[in-house]
Amino acid sequence: MNSKETGFLVQGALIAALYVALTMMFAPISFGPVQFRISEALCILPFFTPAAIPGLFLGCLISNLLGTAVIMDVICGSLATLIGAVGSYWLRQHKYLVCLPPILANTLIIPWVLRYAYGSTDLVPFMMLTVGIGEVLAIGVLGNGLLALLERYKYVIFRQSRV
Fold it and tell me: pTM for the complete prediction?
């Protein structure tokens, strides 16, 4: 394994660990029908590195396994994060659009999980609104703030090895 591959694995693992740590640290608001995952702010990281794609997916998967999620939520919630991360990576040339794919993926997928995995009786459009608000705040507000901060240090934090 060369140093570039090692760097990719390390970045992905660090992102996954950070996602899990933030989710668990704020567990009371990270889980449930109305949630605000501060860790979702990390969904802007594909702007800086493709290693964020598997890192975010694994971080969400591990968080959901450690939390109170049922298997459908573990699978579908993690896939929503993966879809959002891939979309963010595809839009990395458009800095202000990077936050849209994870917001949309979660807004469209998670309400159905709440309905069928947890038996929520709320209307799906209402849950799309509540999930969407949480995602806009976590990714649109916190995530874009994080993006602006990290952009100053991107060549230090996300530098690629030259080997």
Answer: 0.94
